[in-house]
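FAQ: What does the model actually see?

It sees only this:
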Amino acid sequence: MARGEDTQDPHPVDRHVGRRVQEKRLGLGLSQTALGKAVGVSFQQMQKYEKGQNRISASKLFEIADFLNVGIPYFFDGYSSRPGLAEETAPAFDHDHPATRQSLEIARLAPQLPLRKQKLILEMMREMLEDGAGE
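And it is asked to produce this:
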């Protein structure tokens, strides 16, 4: 997917990689300042990386991956540039809502519950959203 030179929107790959950095950072309980310091950039630059506003160079992505103890492919997991090539059974990966510490903890804890309780919590969350409590 090519972008015109006058396009100001972040490229979808840059947004995806940035969000994967953010998800891993939050999952490890790190601040943008801590991660930025570890890889030699300011927290403002880390914000721009996570939003996809600035592209992460290959060398910086390598440093981030090394510090977060993940492989480079981790940052591209869940992204497909060619619709239709993903398995039909794979759920769509929705990045419209950035991960928070709470959402990551919910995702980490939910599988530990019995299926019946998972369904109850899911039903409760859906009801809360319908009532407008998700704002």
